[in-house]
Amino acid sequence: MGKRLAENCAETCDLLVDAVLKLQVVKQKVFWLLKTRQRQQALHYVEHLCEAEDLRDLTLIMEDYCMSLMKEIRILKGRRGFSDEAKKARAGFHLIATRCKALSCMQDIDRALIIRLGCDPCCRHPVEPHVLRKLLPRPPSEERREQLLEEIWRERGVPTPDVGSASPEIIESCKICCNVAPTRSATRSPSPSRPAFEECQL
């Protein structure tokens, strides 16, 4: 049982990290459009970001999965303490929970970005940058970032501009807006019908 939990943890972590990377590059694209004064296009991409149902579904799946997984781990512990396999499963769970917290923190950063674009009247205070640095995963490589950008833009049916040389500007623009570089960040679209992860007491 412990081995199965450990494998499930690893598989789910891979899924979540992949989603985090995709969200990173979408946000970088928005900042690049703002930097090049393409405000209407930036608004268009923010709308797509907020309407991405697959991203909302992912966060709900992760919330339910983490809660049920934690119950299984507690059962597995029993009276004799954690076995080696249970310890692996427990470590995997904490990794997932960390990723979930990172996604949840970025909800406030998303609101700050939308406010800057002028298309949403409601905004909370963004999370402190030093908190984000502790939670967020490592940034993708430049090659992986551009590959993900192309995939996302292809899905949206839009031309793919060359943004490889714009990375320094993207980072600088993001620092001005949110006080955190986009290569250190990950986003998720707000889901008003469900609570944020930090409210789930993981």
TrEMBL record:
Compositional bias of kind Low complexity? 183-195
Q: Which domain of life is it from?
A: Eukaryota
* GO biological process entries: protein transport
Disordered: region residues: 183-202
InterPro entries listed in its UniProt record: Ist1, IST1-like
Q: Indicate the family of this protein.
A: Belongs to the IST1 family.
Please report the name of this protein according to its UniProt entry. Uncharacterized protein
> What organism is recorded for this protein?
Spirodela intermedia (Intermediate duckweed)
